[in-house]
Structure formats: structure tokens, C-alpha cells
Amino acid sequence: MTRSKIQDRLPPSAIEVHETSDADADYNEKSGDEYDQRGMVRMGKRQELRREFQFFSIFGFAVILGCSWEYVFINGVLSLPNGGTAGSVWMFLITCFGMFFVVLFAPANLQKFLSYTVGYLCVLGWHASLAGTCYAAGQQVQAIIVLANPQFAIQTWETALLAMAVVVVAVGFNTVLYRKLPIVEGIVMIVHVFGFFAFVIVLWVMAPRGDSSVLTTFTTNGWSSAGVACLVGISAPIGDLIGADSSVHLSEELKNAAWILPRAMVATAVMNYLLGFITIITLVFCLGDLDNAINSATGQPYVQVLLNATQSTGATIALTVVMLILLISCAVNTATTSSRQLWSFARDGGPPFSAWLSRVRPGWDIPMNAMTVSLGVTAILSCIVIGSATAYGVFVTLVNSGLLSSYAICIGCILLKRIRGEPFPPSQFSLGGAGNIVNVIALAFLSVAWVFQFFPSAPDPTGNSMNWSILIFGAVIIFFTVHYAVNARHRYTGPVVHVTRHTAE
């Protein structure tokens, strides 16, 4: 398809970006190849962001954002009490298979209200993910302080302030140094891989090893059965593995996106799940005393495990600093994804103040207004959970509930479309006849996992230990439903209008 033919298919507003005085080099850099341009035509959108990413940079971006082995260590505080060592391992495996089926499908072809709903759920999930990642980074700082000064007492308000500092760094990197992000991904990817080997080798060599009973030892944590406890603890492995769709939200910044994106998503899932599985096996075999790890003064069970293994405060601090660096890098990537999700949703007229949120200043090629809102939302969420004993768990369940809901709606619509035998838009990636099986398995897994996201970490919770994510999730649902009925239904278009029209042609 030639450039003139492509422009003939675009709405007038979409042609604006190409009518510049620069040569075709800028057009190619910003607009990508023929398939990229066809994709923009199909969606009826103009190219506003620069295509900086290729396969390895977007693969590194998603792997670092996923931080699977890092979160296996960090989320042990959620999974180990509910289900014990055996529950942590087996629920991780179940989640691996369930999430792999989910990751093969990204949002597409939804009707107006459903696409609007998915947009809001993704905005909620990714902004909660940004807040949770920054909060986790703040917890690592506090763990380092406790290691250096055992008299230090961790306070949640301090964690909230540290989280705000981390998000300022993440947003600052995304504005001042964004053009360098693809290069930085390669460097951080090296730290990610070598950091993984540093952690597991230290534990393999220096930690006391448990026996095979760790794979059969379940704990109930006060629940009626080990099965219920494991399902309550499933929020941890889902939090470890969720987010392989992060690269979808950067598809407009990816060269040859139609071919590269699905393959990068699958490659990301395979690598993250493999490293995560090795990590969870290492952790449960080298855990030592479960209560000692869970009740660590550092607030991080894995830090206590490292300290017990190395018997060296300095070595433990060094490894925790590596974890901190990787979490800050994860926050940078999550800020990129969350702001792009909000920006693209605003471009379709979804949230309030869409015109302002979707504005991209010429020459900057980044959604600065959306980035600013992402910073503000993270600060607000960090303040909301001050005083909660389960603050980090609230972030994890908010991420999981928002993104799992969006996945379930998308996959349900795709499955219905397949059953009806309706055509799909042209694609460079397809599962063929296996698609229906994958959809059914993914939808079944999501339905069960979603319910248990809102359970408290233990039965009979107090106000301080309650899982308040259900309140925040419910408030968001009520807000966007009212907003749609009053305002958004009159101006929200969504991608389905353009996709359907393009398919019919």
C-alpha cells in the first residue's frame, strides 16, 4: 500500500502528522513500515508517537516490567502464609499455565461499552501496578535500613513517601531520557539476568536445604482447608506473572508491530515463567524456618532468607540493592505502560478531560499530560493505604482484579466471535483451531482467580488487616459506569468502529 493510498483511507485528523516539511526519513521513523501504517488506518488513528522499539528492546522492556523472579521473592509475604511452601509452588505452576493461555490474546474487537469498560479496568490495573511497584521499591529501601540499623522501626507513611520518590524518578526518566529507553532496556536486561543468577547461586551454595517435604507441606492460615488457603494465596503468583500484555500498550512505538508484538509477548511469558519457576523452587527449598522468614524485622521474607544463608549483613544489603535497582527499572517501564494506556484511552474519548489527556506536544512525542496524571494517581494510591497492615497486598489485588477483569472480557468476546464464526481482521499471528481451546481454559482460570483476589489474607480480618481493594475497585466501577451514562456514551468511539469498518471493506 503506497503512502498516498494510506492517507486516502485516514480521517483528515490522522493525516496531519505526515504533512510535515521533513523528508521521508522522519516519516519512516515515526510511522513504521507498511504493516504499521495499515494498522493505524484500521484503527482510524494518526501516528503521534515515535517508533523507537524493535524486538529485543520491547522484549527487554516487558521482561523487566514483569520482574518475575524478583516478585517471586517479594510476594512470598503473600503466598507463604496461605498454602505454605507446597501451595506456593503448585499455585505458581497452575498460574503459569493459566496466564500463558491468557497472554496469547490482547484486547481487540470489543463493542462500545465493553471496550470502554476494558479501558477503565486497564487504567486501574496499570496505575495500581505502578503504585505497587513504587511501594515495593520503598520497602526494599526500608529493608536495607533495617539491615544497617536493626533498631529502625518500619512505618507505612515512610513507605508511602518513598513510593512517591520512586514514581518521580520513573516519570522523570520517561520525560527527560525517554529516547534512551530502548538502549537502557538492554543494560538493565543484563542486570536482570545476572542478578537472577547471583540470587539463586548464593542460595544454592550457602543456604541450608530442605527436603522434598516442602513440596507436600501445606498450611491453612486459619482457613477451612488447604485448598481455600492456596486459592487465597494465588494473588501472589498472579502478581508475579501478570503483565505480559504490557508491550501491547507500546504497539504504536514498535516497528513492525503486527509481526513482532505477539512473538515478543510469548517470548516474554516463556522467559519470565521459567525464571520465576526456578526462583520459587529455590526459595521454598532454601527457606528454612517459615515463621522466622515471614516475621522478619525487614518486612521482606526473602531478605531474612538471604541473611540466614550468607550470615553477612553486607552481602545481604548488596543483593537487596540489586533488587531495588531492578524494581526502580520496573517502575520506569510501568510508568511508560500506564501513561500510554491512559493516553490511548483518552484519545478515544474515554476518561474525563480526554482532550487534555490525549494531547502530545509536537517534537516531544510523549504523552506528557497522561504521564503527569500517572504520577498523581500513584501518589494518591500511596496515601490511601497509609496505616494498613496489608498495604502492599491491596496494590497486588488491585492490579490483579483490574487486569484479570479486562482479560476475561476480551477473551469472552473473542470466544463468542469464534463460536459465531464471525471474521477477524487480517493478522500476522494466529493459533488456528487451537484458539477456542486456549480461550476456554483461559476464561475458566480467570473466573476462579478473580473471585479470590478480594479475599483478606486471613479469616476474620480486623479493619487494619482487611483487604480494602474491593472498596477501591467498586468505587472505580461505579464512577466509570455513571460517567459513561452521563457523558462518555455521547463522545466515546473506541477502536471497534474503525476496526469493524475496515474489516467490512
TrEMBL record:
<feature type="transmembrane region" description="Helical">
    <location>
        <begin position="53"/>
        <end position="74"/>
    </location>
</feature>
<feature type="transmembrane region" description="Helical">
    <location>
        <begin position="118"/>
        <end position="138"/>
    </location>
</feature>
<keyword id="KW-0472">Membrane</keyword>
<keyword id="KW-0812">Transmembrane</keyword>
<feature type="transmembrane region" description="Helical">
    <location>
        <begin position="437"/>
        <end position="456"/>
    </location>
</feature>
<dbReference type="GO" id="GO:0016020">
    <property type="term" value="C:membrane"/>
</dbReference>
<keyword id="KW-1133">Transmembrane helix</keyword>
<feature type="transmembrane region" description="Helical">
    <location>
        <begin position="187"/>
        <end position="207"/>
    </location>
</feature>
<feature type="transmembrane region" description="Helical">
    <location>
        <begin position="315"/>
        <end position="335"/>
    </location>
</feature>
<dbReference type="GO" id="GO:0022857">
    <property type="term" value="F:transmembrane transporter activity"/>
</dbReference>
<feature type="transmembrane region" description="Helical">
    <location>
        <begin position="468"/>
        <end position="486"/>
    </location>
</feature>
<protein>
    <submittedName>
        <fullName>Uncharacterized protein</fullName>
    </submittedName>
</protein>
<feature type="transmembrane region" description="Helical">
    <location>
        <begin position="368"/>
        <end position="389"/>
    </location>
</feature>
<feature type="transmembrane region" description="Helical">
    <location>
        <begin position="264"/>
        <end position="285"/>
    </location>
</feature>
<feature type="transmembrane region" description="Helical">
    <location>
        <begin position="395"/>
        <end position="416"/>
    </location>
</feature>
<dbReference type="Pfam" id="PF13520">
    <property type="entry name" value="AA_permease_2"/>
</dbReference>
<feature type="transmembrane region" description="Helical">
    <location>
        <begin position="222"/>
        <end position="243"/>
    </location>
</feature>
<dbReference type="InterPro" id="IPR002293">
    <property type="entry name" value="AA/rel_permease1"/>
</dbReference>
<feature type="transmembrane region" description="Helical">
    <location>
        <begin position="86"/>
        <end position="106"/>
    </location>
</feature>
<keyword id="KW-0813">Transport</keyword>
<feature type="transmembrane region" description="Helical">
    <location>
        <begin position="158"/>
        <end position="178"/>
    </location>
</feature>
